[in-house]
Amino acid sequence: MRYAEDKRLLQELVDNWAIFSDSGNWARFAECWHDDGFMCATWFQAPSADFIAARRKGFDNGVSIIHFHGGFTADVNESRAVTQTKMIISQRAKVDDVLVDVVCTGRFYDFHEQRAGRWGMVRRQPIYEKDRMDAVDPDARLRLDPDLLQQFPEGYRHLAYLQSKIGYKVAKGGLPALKGPEIDKLYADGAAWLAGAATPGRPNLIM
Question: Could you give all domains of the chain from N- to C-terminal order, each with its CATH number?
Answer without folding.
Answer: 2-194 (3.10.450.50)
